[in-house]
Amino acid sequence: MANRIIQTLRQMTPRMAGASIRERMIACMGALIGIGFAGLISGAVTGHGIGLPLLVAPLGASAVLLFAVPASPLAQPWSIVGGNTVSAFVGVTAAMFIPDAAFGAAAAVAAAIGVMSLLRCLHPPGGAVALSAVLGGPAVLSAGYSFALVPVGLNSLVLVLLGFVFHRFSRHSYPHRPKPAAAPHGTADPPPQLRVALTDDDIDAAIADSGDTFDIAREDLHKLLRRAELAALERTREVPRCADIMSRDVVSIGASATWPEAHALLVAHELRILPVVDNAQRVVGVVELHELERPAEMVAEVMAEPVSVLPDDSVLWLIEPLSDGRTHAAVVTDGTGKLLGLITQTDLIAALARLALSGAARNGKAAGLRPS
Description:
Helix content is 52%, strand content 7%. The chain is mostly helical.
């Protein structure tokens, strides 16, 4: 009986994907800093003399989204600032024109959801802001629409700015910008990684069929599903490591080399890409043949950020970067940045072909088939 109760309680407490102890500690620290400084800054700007609270209560919910799930569409700057401010305007309007508090509160929250949806700034705490404006009493009514600007708009703006600074020091990107796979070369063809397996239409159809709304951008969802497919393949197949397929005798060049020297090396060895290394053989960039068409004197002026992997990394994780139409090779380093090898698109294709053939042979053997 006790075990059944425990199991039921666990089912009632879903765990958010990606919610590790480290992530939750980052969220706690962010909320501590964000709310604390938002109150101090708002107080300094207003001079503590406006007759309204320095912080509106729904800002706490905004902080939860901003620091705990910064990739959520509901936690982006326009959602927080726009959603809270617009909802405050709606709430003040309801308070002015609807005498009955209960009906006014209901109308304010409903209208806030509608307006936020139309303006594409849906933010759950906005509903609480609208409710607070209706139930705020004489202080809010006397402030009128200025309540939407100070403290609501000011609080929201300060919190977003603090979130932007805070997330520069965390490993999160904020504002979060989903990166859809781009079609290379400016053509109408879909990107190579989207021409097989799942497509945007498949994902849209699945979302429509579910009948639910999900708090994740479609581009992020597509990326997660592609990575899940690779993880499943990794689990069910003996996948080579990067060290197994890399070229070890790598032609490289120093960052202080000149443009003609790099061009001569590329042409002499019939290469498309050169790792650029420092005196300790640590990779500091890569230079490609097409980059050398730009006018420059030194390699350091045209080198780009490399795609870097470790020797024990799976070759499957190179599929996405090496099929984007722009990147032609990845450098293999020892973890400290020292160059160990290079994997080109040709190396990856050969490895994937062997993997496909081994999978086909395994499937044929399981089905009792013999090669003709």
